[in-house]
């Protein structure tokens, strides 16, 4: 059974600070996804990571994938309030048949 | 393009009532999915349809049925609602091949009393 674990589950950080969210998974997979969810809203795709060593960046967010360690990270640089949301990682274990989600990291960026 | 649409947005049911959640996508995707989201649980897959005419159980299928009506539409039915089915339900779709990236609908917030 595939397990996807995110940590931390809750994160309060000050504006301007840097932090990293971790996503570990238990079974070999070549695809990892990061989604963002604002309160009461749907999920928005942030990054799709397809291979070992993949790195994607968008604004203050950077995601990376180490398939050998079964680890992905989402790094936040110089956080701003607009980044406050819940971030989910998800792993695809069977070529698009299903996504297994982590429990999400609820991020609050405070002044 | 509207992307993935879901109806209704909100619903309150009494225990034992039935209802169908509707989902449609206009992106010509082959695969469609139903998830439920509960606080602190992430998203869990209920059913999915890899292509028109096929459906498969996910992690939490008990108490639900699905119909892949055509390539665009994938419905989720609760035959006899229970309070444990109180949740937010998301439909998603994806293309076969390539990134397999899933696109999500706006969700249906269901309360069973």
How would you describe the overall organization of this protein?
With 111 residues, chain A is mostly beta strands. Chain A contains no helices and 11 strands. Chain A has strands at residues 4-7, 10-14, 19-25, 31-37, 43-49, 55-58, 61-66, 71-76, 85-92, 99-101, 105-110. In chain A, the strands form 2 sheets. In chain A, strands 2, 4, 5, 9, 10 and 11 form a 6-stranded mixed beta sheet that branches. A 5-stranded antiparallel beta sheet of chain A has the order 1-3-8-7-6, with no helix packed on it. Chain A is globular. The termini of chain A are far apart. Chain B is mostly beta strands. Chain B contains no helices and 11 strands. Chain B has strands spanning 4-7, 10-13, 19-25, 31-37, 43-49, 56-57, 64-68, 74-78, 87-94, 103-104, 108-112. In chain B, strands 2, 4, 5, 6, 9, 10 and 11 form a 7-stranded mixed beta sheet that branches. A 4-stranded antiparallel beta sheet of chain B has the order 1-3-8-7, with no helix packed on it. In chain B, strand 7 and strand 8 form a beta hairpin. The A-B interface holds A 4, 9, 31, 33, 35, 41-45, 48, 50, 88, 90, 92, 95-104 and B 31, 33, 35, 40-45, 48, 50, 56, 58, 90, 94, 96-97, 99-107.
Query: H/E order of the elements of chain A?
Result: EEEEEEEEEEE
Strand content of chain B: over 45%
The count of helical stretches of chain B stands at 0
Q: What are the segments of chain B in which pLDDT stays under 50 over at least 5 consecutive residues?
A: none
The Cα radius of gyration of chain B reads 13 Å
